Amino acid sequence: MSMIDRSxxxxxxxxxxxxELPLLExxxxxxxxxxxxxxxxxxxxxxxxxxxxxxxxxxxxKFCAFYRRPKHHEGxxxxxxxxxxxxxxxxxxxxxxxxxxxxxxxxxxxxxxxxLMRHIKTHHPIHIHGxxxxxxxxxxxxxxxxxxQVIRQLQDAGLDSIPGGGGEILVQDVRDRVAKKKVGADxxxxxxxxxxxxxxxxxxxxxxxxxxxxxxxxEHLLRVREVQSRTGGFxxxxxxxxxxDGTGMAGTPKTDSVTHLRTVxxxxxxxxxxxxxxxxxVTMGLKVGQIALRFGCNDFGSLMIEENVVSAAGTSHHxxxxxxxxxxxxxxxxxxxxxxxxxxIREDAVV
Length: 351
Known about the structure:
With 351 residues, the chain is an alpha/beta fold. It has helices at 9-20, 23-37, 80-92, 110-123, 133-142, 147-157, 172-178, 185-197, 214-231, 257-270, 281-284, 286-292, 321-330; strands spanning 42-46, 48-52, 97-101, 127-130, 202-208, 234-241, 276-278, 299-302, 334-338, 344-347. The chain has one domain (9-347): Aldolase class I (TIM Barrel, Alpha-Beta Barrel), CATH 3.20.20. The strands form 3 sheets. A 4-stranded mixed sheet has the order 8-1-9-10. Strands 2-3-4 form a 3-stranded parallel sheet, covered by helices on one side. A 3-stranded parallel sheet has the order 5-6-7. Strand 6 (234-241), helix 10 (257-270) and strand 7 (276-278) form a beta-alpha-beta unit. The longest helix has 18 residues, at 214-231.
């Protein structure tokens, strides 16, 4: 992976825009970019469920309140039956996808994951969006496989697409400070590029507020753009701030709404080759999510039937489909339900 040169005029200009341009001017630039990419005025959303198959993890990320160390009395691994029940509940609510992610659990054999994929596809068929690059890297190390072998076998067993979890900030100095045991920045991007090469679509994320600099955030975005220019495999970008409560970073100041909107906007401006930008209302609330639709976002994200990781840190915004549609309409857009690859299931012009 090539390094980003922070001394270039382009880098300095992006940093200047992010730090110095008045908020509404920055938002207008991002809104114009959104209009170029999505002139139809449609804002999409998805109905899905985040199923965390285990909370046992040995990565020890400082920013996570969800994980439990091995042998902790609150550690768990969901059974296939429990996962199946969650999928059926999701379908009953109109869900079209499950997001399946867990901790780095050293006690689960690789065959368990393959059997889980086959079990879901046989008994509860649905789109499986699962196993972030950090999990793929953990599997490759744990089971002495290449990352490509891991992805291929999961894909053959039923995995449809890969989420952008574990991206945090793709600058190694930052990762060394807050998640030293987890996949490195170069490796994270390498695994995404491998997945794209195998025909899989993925999302890509940035969790900020980890004590990184503004320049680190710009580097993260440029690294994503660089991979996307080669592969075209990222369907969407999602960014949200650290939720510090209950984590090893408790006491870290929470991100304010203005900083979040500036971050969303600069992401839309830089990531001109990533088609979709998602509003992170789950962490920032519905009103900020709605405003983000005029700061470059064209997707309102997920109904979030279930979410465990962010809520473990004390942040838990909830909404009904009706509330999500109303936010979209009131912002001046047409709401439309989508699938993971952004195919439209239906438009909901009347709310």
